[in-house]
Task: structure prediction
Amino acid sequence: MLVLVTSFSTLAADLPDARTQLLTGDYPGCISLARQALKENENDEDWSILLCQALLSTGQYPEARSAITNSLAAHRQNIRLCWQAREAFLANGQVQAARQMLDTIGRIVWRHPSDFSDADELVISGKTLLLMGVDPKRVLDRIFDAALKSNPKLRDVFLAAGQLALDKHDFALAAKKFQEGLAQVPDDPDLLFGLAQAYAPNNAALMISSLESALERNSNHVGCLLLLVDHNIDAEDYSEAGKLLERIERVNPWNPDAWAYRAVLAELQNQPEGEQTAREKALKFWPNNPRVEHLIGLKLSQNYRFEEGASHQRQALAFDPDYLPAKAQLAQDLLRLGQETEGWKLADEVQKQDAYDVESYNLTTLHDTMGKFSTLTNQDFVLRMNSEEAAIYGARVLKLLDQARTNLCSKYGFETARPTIVEVFHEQKDFAVRTFGMPGNPGYLGVCFGNLITANGPAAQFDHPVNWQAVLWHEFCHVVTLQLTRNKMPRWLSEGISVFEEAQANPAWGQRMTPEYREMVLGGELTPIAELSGAFLAPPSPVYLQFAYYESSLVVEFIVQRFGLESMKAILHDLGQGVEINQAIEHHTIAIARLEKDFAGFARERAESLAPGLDFQKPAAAQGFVALGDSPAGTNGAGPTLPRRPSRRGRSRSPSPGQEALATWAATHPTNYYALTEQARKLIAQKEFQAAKIPLEKLNELYPGETGADSGPALPGIRYRELGETNAEKELLVRVARQDDEAITSYQRLMEMAASDQNWSNVLQNTERYLAVNPLRPLPYHFLAQASDHLGRPADGIAAYRALLQLTPPDPADVHFQLAQLLFRVGDLQARRQVLQALEEAPRYQAALQLLLRINHEMPPAKTDPSPAPAIEQ
Result:
């Protein structure tokens, strides 16, 4: 008897060691200890659960089922064994047996709820109730919180609560729960993995940091490795993703998610046989596993293969019609494919089936909001906008889109088969929900899904106004290239062509070499072309993200300049046929290694040609100031996963040095860019405008192409105005306006100066520039109406006055009157209505009364007034 007790005592002491082995990835060691323990006591529930978990972790699914069912036979009322048996049954595709285990747990707990007050049993009860459809908030607040009070350090409580939040797409709550768990159980790899999942949608840098910490503790953590695979697929680093999958296979050769990712890789690389083989292996033990098809489809959709993605979601639903993740993703796919009736219907079904899912709730709420939008159409576009904004500048949007289509479709030899859907949002949160399913992602300006464009409108960009015309031109270029290639192009090329085409359409659009980019190029920070798509993910700062766009466009410019546009079009054609990108490039240019070398030389030459007369050496920190353009310490710019046009705003301003230190530095560096700029800024701040002329004129002479609010050309406008040097001010502002597509204050000043000079063509030019940035202010429409009147363009004047009326002008009677005059001049019967509205605002308006008399005398009475605006569907 003493020997037996000693044996049990030894095995009990080994249990924590075995759990540590499981947690740290020593699965064979854990299996060995568990089997040894079960030889002594074959029905020990703790060892049986541990053995089953370790066997599942290594892909030994039938063995795991046997291990747990043997113990379950002796402990049929043990809900911990029942839950683990459910996991084993699912891994073996025995869905009905797994469902029976769930029902068994429910019956046991329901009959004797007071018997299950231990924290670990409460967690299992809570997870069971969630699967049975009980209110998630009730489970979280009553059951998981009770488990936490019972055992504040039980990791399973935090894992279950965090997973619940992840399942509901509440990533902020998920991060909070996993962080709370890590405070109690530091360095737990499963909690770190959960935290990485919570960060994944919005912060790739923190996701990677969490994964690295988890893998330090458990280098065989399959979940972490799979999330890295996912990240590398998004970065189009298929080689690294393949290596990670090989690493996973050494741990678990039958993990269904790993084989699903292999199927994704095969499909993305146009390997249909490999895709089929991988899919079959993913379904080996569970032939109708809906998660496999859902995961394959999800990753294909995230790589813009929406038709293929939707097909896999339909297959997942064929396996299990109640599998909500597939239904939710299918709804998103269909909405992005323009199949909106079915898409919105599915989204509504998901929300009704799971009222706590944040993503589906956001989507159905957005549907209600968009139901109030106006729809403007022509044969090529379906444009949806806020109704008030559509009346103000909707026609301008359609006109711009038509210009983009005419230009780009002709250039690339492509015709859209159906109208392109364009949705412009006046609230950033609505744009984010429509685009990503969740609010957030404030850095995005526009996204293209192939036949659908979503964009933030000017109202959503008031804090940092951008040129909406450039954004839409950029996005429509994606429409062309994505459809040309059947969505089979790398991200860097897609973004590079769109940024390149911006600059081709308007020299003020797109990106250009800057001092920051110059330093990065000459400092050896060019990303190899083959790795360029990865530069968009988790960049160390926003400048690096913008540089990824710029470098991509520079590669495109290099190829077009060196090999011609026809070569680029041929590359796109090959991509559409499934040819791998490097092969397509080599077939129509030169070997990739040579191309990389020649491009690096091209980029260096471009960098060195930037203001060659200026010294770009950065002042040392000891001088008391840091060079302009440095990113603030700790700036995190997690990269987006979908195309967007970057902003050129946001340059950081360095601390100002003392005047003496600055003067000393400048004296020995008379052409230093940073010293000259800082000198100018300080002198202007001190209102020493005459003295500021020296550094400013040096900057403008040596770097006339600089743009931005802090650039040399932008600063002199203040100084010249203060000194009354109008001609010099105008000359500089004209140059700024030609080079900067967001210089709204320069456009306004030029409008004022041109109107004063009665140079109405220049007024018109700058109102158009202004409206391309912000069409929601009255000022440019006043100037546009005046210019149109003087230039004999009544249609433009009429449109300007109609827009003004939508913007609630301070003197609506005058606007109605001016509009009535123009309408009367062109014989439009709406003149009568407008003059009556003027008189309604100001009954004693003599000029309006006289105009009404003329209208009644010279125009026939109208039976019905024709609609004055473009056809708009409410």
